[in-house]
Amino acid sequence: MQDIFNFNQIVGLFFYGTLIALVIDIFLILFVKNKNEVFLSILIIISGLMFIFAPLFNDEAVDFKYRFLHNLPFLIAGLIFIIAGVKQFLSFKDVSLRPDKGELIKSKSQKISADILSIKHLANIRVNGRAPYLIIAKGFNPIINQEQIFQSYHIWDDILFLIKNKKNIDIYIDTTNPKRYYMDVNSLINNN
Fold it and tell me: Residue 113 pairs with which residues in a beta bridge?
């Protein structure tokens, strides 16, 4: 009895399916700027793993040299996708802590004042008909001795009219981990 698909057809279908998934992932990452990008980074990592492991099931490769040369492009592509996915996944950590966790680190943090660069209304993210705001600020981080761009968590209240005249915002930087910080949006709103 003859197989319905041979190995080359399966690899071809797999390759083109993964390529289409990758193009969709890249399109979503570039043009859909929501914080559901964790899902997209996981998809990229899975695509990379599929590239690496699919050629291992090739029964037509008779010797090591042929198998290695045949699988090398898949291995390289898979590693590139895995690195891109992990990099994308790790980039989510550079956002302010939410207020419940931020209040906890205030005691072991260093307070700085940062200049507000912009307030963005993320109209492409909608939950119950509402879109969040995002505050972007720039300040000097004394723990790492560098200027740093700080980004708030998603603010679901309509804060634009409350803080439009404000120029600075308080930021609490964790002294044990300088990448963790809390942008104190509540104090900015309460000072009106």
Answer: 170
pLDDT in tens, 17-48: 667 767 766 666 665 544 455 566 666 666 66
Each residue's pLDDT tens digit, 142-182: 888 889 888 888 888 877 777 767 788 889 988 887 778 88
Cα 10 from chain centroid?
32
Residue for token digits 């679901």? 156
Please state, in angstroms and rounded to a whole number, the distance separating the CA atoms of residues 192 and 146: 30
Mean pLDDT confidence for 68-81 = 73
> Angle at which helices 64-90 and 37-53 pack, to 10 degrees?
170
173 sits in which H/E element: strand 168-174
Domains of the chain, by residue range, sit at 7-92, 97-190
| φ, ψ dihedrals at 168, nearest 5° | -125, 155
Residues 6 or more apart whose Cβ sits within 8 Å of residue 61: 67, 70, 71
| Distance separating alpha carbons of residues 120 and 188, to the nearest angstrom | 16
Query: Cα 5 to chain center, whole Å?
Result: 38
Distance between CA atoms of 123 and 43, rounded to whole angstroms?
A: 24
- Contact criterion met (CB below 8 Å) for 139 and 115: yes
Task: List the structure tokens of 182.
Answer: 């809390």
